[in-house]
Design brief:
By secondary structure, this protein is α/β, with parallel strands linked by helices. The chain contains 20 helices and 27 strands. The protein has 3 domains: 310 residues, 2-Layer Sandwich (polyphosphate kinase like), CATH 3.30.1840; 169 residues, 2-Layer Sandwich (Endonuclease, Chain A), CATH 3.30.870; 183 residues, Endonuclease, Chain A (2-Layer Sandwich), CATH 3.30.870.10.
Length: 690
């Protein structure tokens, strides 16, 4: 297009920061229960950690290599983008701290109060000392530091107390030390005995109270202790040693990640300037690294696990997962799929149906093989148990496991070893590509001995933990149009020297973008002819410039486009001359909107697709992704109903716009909170089905 990039493309990282501001909005939203607001603040902090580990680190590397303006960055230079990111992060940091302080005050309305080491009563001091001796002391180690020796590598997920000790015999030369706060072993929040109120303490404050006990060998006059935190580049560097297996290289690279280059250093703004400068110099932080002055407490991500010390009204009301009307406990799921497709809609439906399919296949004498792709798994995965059970029952089980699933590498390496030990065939996909698809294939003979295939194509991982709070689809089907193509995908994963042709599935990296461009062009043709046209999109992120430009083109020809984009949206909706026919919203609520759904009006015969791919270069060019068409008419109706409900949300929806101001939608009529309305819809379907 002739419109300059700075007008039509929002840099993905700037758009992502706007997304994390929406998370902050949830922490501020007084309609959310108080403990849930604290947890949203924890999610915001966790998101920001990952942003610096991945995106900021990548931008820093790019800035060190080149400073050319890039279209995908809204025609900004990498250094220019880094400056804008840093300024925005500083502003968001201050706002998140203010929100934190307000929420802490609000806790007192429910007789829950944080105390520091300076506030303890005599009884609390005894409890805190005993708690430290029994639970904390065995996990605390002190690193003495000074200018004469190299600073040990600091763990990037941890917070540290930077200690400055003034000795009675030499007060002019304070000693320095670092203590890692053992949150993972002990827990970040320590509940004190209830006395009128429920008192709670940060673990680092409990350690502060016991510093003289830790450092008893020194004749201390007084001590200063301030928290610091380092964030490192999370990129994995795989060596080129051909004598090592891919599994060995990944294991080594994951171990090396803990010493990656620093990209962010957060510190208590009250810290002594000399201590701060010593740490900055010792870690060799440079001008590209983000130094952020914060409050007394860091790692707010731990608020995700903040305990509910009050009543039920401090958390979201429970929304029970529902049964699927067509699937009974005493009925074969494969038998149901012989007659119809099944759409599982998580978390409204129970993920256990996927486990049941695998368990049924494991004991069915006519099932010959099971193939599955695994990206992220639960720590205690019943998926793995079901696959191992199938292998022990003589089924040929093949698992394509993605060792480079970011931050789950160590977990997946562990599961690989378990599967291989149990006789499961494990393969690692395609060199240079991540296998991000969510597919399952079961090969079974019918009563006459003829091979029949059953498949699942999903938008989310086979992970029973995330299935409780991610919205996702899994389409279960025996439709040969889909199952035969799924079999071709697994053939490609086994023998990836040969590119397969697919008749129905949209498969990255070879065909997805081209397929969507053709679908959009068909809508443009229909609009020109006066036929029904329109595009409805629901996904996590949209940043691919080629597809964005194609959507702009469709808009100029009058194609109405409705988009529900949870996170990154590099497209600018509602701009006169190129996007006035595009509306885009984001939904943030108690569940993470993760499902990917696309509807093309197709001249009055709508086409439906769901799958694993967002419209980002990584999903289209550098991953194995699978998107399936939907052919079952009943499932199509459900998907259209789902989108209609989501689009009507006027409680938790915000506009995507050029200003990136996250303005809430103001739609007249009754209040519709889509996630609750969808739960009601699925519940109604269950009653009708029964």
């Amino acid at each position: 297009m002739n419109i300059p990039a700075q007008k039509r493309i929002i840099a993905r990282d700037i758009s992502w920061l706007a997304f994390n501001e929406r998370v902050l909005q949830e922490a501020m939203d007084e309609s959310n229960p108080l403990v849930e607001r604290l947890r949203f603040l924890g999610i915001y902090s966790s998101n920001m950690d990952e942003f610096f580990r991945v995106r900021y680190a990548s931008m820093k590397r790019l800035a060190q290599l080149s400073n050319e303006r890039q279209e995908r960055m809204g025609a900004m230079q990498p250094t220019e983008l880094l400056r804008e990111i840093s300024a925005k992060v500083q502003e968001m940091q201050a706002r998140s701290q203010a929100i934190n302080d307000a929420l802490m005050e609000e806790l007192s309305d429910y007789d829950i109060e944080f105390v520091t080491e300076r506030d303890l009563t005599a009884g609390q001091r005894d409890y805190v000392r005993k708690f430290f001796i029994d639970k904390v002391s065995p996990t605390v180690f002190t690193l003495m530091v000074d200018e004469t020796k190299e600073l040990p590598e600091l763990r990037e997920k941890s917070i540290y107390l930077a200690i400055r000790m003034f000795l009675k015999q030499d007060p002019e030369h304070p000693k320095m030390a670092l203590i890692e706060v053992p949150s993972e072993q002990v827990g970040r929040f320590v509940s004190l005995p209830r006395y009128g109120k429920q008192y709670i303490m940060y673990l680092e404050d409990l350690i502060r109270y016991n510093l003289e006990y830790i450092l008893f060998i020194y004749n201390i006059d007084h001590i200063e202790a301030h928290t610091v935190k380092i964030t490192r580049d999370a990129e994995l560097d795989l060596d080129d040693d051909v004598s090592k297996s891919f599994l060995e290289k990944m294991s080594k690279s994951v171990k090396n990640r803990r010493t990656g280059d620093p990209v962010r250093f957060v510190y208590d703004k009250e810290i002594n300037e000399q201590v701060l400068q010593f740490l900055v110099d010792a870690m060799e932080l440079d001008s590209f690294d983000s130094l952020i002055a914060g409050g007394r407490y860091h790692n707010k991500k731990d608020l995700i696990k903040f305990p509910n010390l009050g009543g039920e009204d401090l958390e979201f009301e429970k929304l029970p997962q529902l049964a699927h009307p067509d699937l009974d406990m005493d009925r074969s799921i494969l038998g149901v799929l012989d007659k119809q497709d099944i759409l599982l809609f998580l978390p409204y439906h129970n993920f256990s149906y996927i486990i049941r399919v695998l368990r049924e296949a494991a004991i069915d004498p006519r099932v010959k093989s099971i193939d599955i792709t695994l990206y992220r798994l639960a720590d205690d995965s019943r998926i793995i148990s079901a696959l191992v059970n199938a292998a022990k029952n003589g089924k040929e089980v093949t698992v394509v496991i993605e060792l480079q699933a970011r931050f789950d590498e160590a977990n997946n390496i562990g599961w690989t070893e378990v599967l291989q030990t149990e006789g499961v065939n494990v393969i690692f996909g395609v060199q240079g590509l991540k296998v991000h698809s969510k597919i399952l294939l079961i090969n079974r003979e019918d009563e006459s001995g003829v091979e029949k295939l059953y498949a699942s194509v999903g938008t989310g991982n086979f992970n029973e933990n995330t299935a409780r709070f991610y919205t996702d689809y899994h389409l279960l089907t025996a439709d040969e149009r889909i199952t035969k193509d799924v079999a071709r995908v697994f053939d490609f994963l086994r023998n990836n020297y040969k590119i397969k042709r697919y008749k129905h599935l949209l498969v990255s990296p070879h065909y997805t973008r081209k397929s969507y461009i053709k679908l959009i062009e068909k809508e443009i043709e229909n609009a020109k002819k006066g036929l029904p046209s329109g595009i409805r999109i629901k996904m996590n992120s949209l940043s691919d410039v080629k597809l964005i430009d194609k959507l702009y083109e469709a808009s100029t020809y009058g194609v109405k486009i409705q988009m529900v984009i949870r996170g990154i949206c590099s497209l600018v909706p509602g701009m006169k001359g190129f996007s006035e026919n595009i509306e885009a919203i984001s939904i943030l609520d108690r569940y993470l909107e993760h499902s990917r759904l696309l509807i093309f009006e197709n001249g009055g015969d709508p086409r439906y697709f769901l799958g694993s791919a967002d419209w980002m270069p990584r999903n289209l060019d550098y991953r194995v992704e699978v998107t399936t068409p939907v052919y079952d008419e009943k499932v199509k109706r459900q998907l259209r109903d789902h989108f209609d409900i989501i689009w009507k949300d006027n409680v938790k929806s915000r506009w995507h716009n050029e200003a990136l101001d996250n303005e809430y939608r103001n739609i007249r009529g009754p209040k519709i909170r889509s996630q609750y309305a969808l739960h009601d819809y699925v519940k109604k379907q269950l009653k009708l089905g029964k």
